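User: Please predict the structure of the protein below. I'd like the answer in structure-token form so I can feed it into my own downstream comparison script.

Assistant: Understood. Taking the following sequence of 329 residues as input:
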Amino acid sequence: MLFAVSRRILLALALTASGLPSAQAQPPAPAPAIPGQDLDWQDTQRQRAVPVRLYWPAQADGAPVPLIVFSHGIGGSRRGYSYLGQYWASQGYASLHVQHVGSDRQLWMGNPLGLVGRLQDAAQEREAIHRARDVSFALDRLLQGEWGARIDARRIVAAGHSYGANTSLLLAGARVERQGAVMDLRDERFKAALIISAPPFYGESDPSAILASVNIPTLHITATEDVIRIPGYYSDAQDRLRVFDATGSATKSLVVFEGGSHSVFTDRDGTGGLTLNPKLKTATRELTLAFLSQVFDGQGESLLSWGERHGGLLARWVRPGASSTSVSR
């Protein structure tokens, strides 16, 4: 993840961020039944498989379709975060969920004694680079295929949760210096980014040096109990707030839900509380499109209406254009 992590830290992070379903998973919140189409692509240049799942708007009427490209957390897959993909498609957005084969659900397969080693490999810098290139490759393939002419190139959005949020920030312009050279994985086709539960860039002392170059609109989503707890290491919502503060976007927004958990934003239905979990999922998916409505259409009333519906769930809300100290309850 572009940072050095101990084996214990990595294991705990993976277990909380994977997005794997709970043992008795049920649909986390009512969602439109829009099936995803699985596509198995191969990046021959990197000799790397790039599986994706595409949710396409059922009622697309010929008008250009906006697109969200989603990157999963460590140990996840293209099947995860379906509550977002299905909702976005029901509201007219195509949603392309990219699976990262070096840090996906295959990490859980094989000898349990080798799990920590597999997770450690998945968090190496080379995988972080591959993840960003997976997304750019998947976008290439989509735009070159039968859907390409129907995508609105002015409304392409990067999105991700946890490790996937780091991936989205790299695509949005985050820059990391290595051995005197700046590693820049920015993809100029992305016009906004949805950043959910972004971990810090561990091992980097100055997040502003990495994130100040992110200049597209960004929405940051977290919760007061968005916490990773392990012996010798602690990461709470303050880390997500530091990412927000360091991001250089002129248009950016922060929502901090009261309660929740780090994995409440995955498809898992029990985390963060059985009652609260579906409420936060509903609020999250509506928030993303309200934010994009303001960014792309100038419809600020969409966010205000969202606040009226879900304000009781909020611990903090920084609206676009407001200072980083703005609070709304």
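That's the full token string. The longest helix spans residues 276-297.
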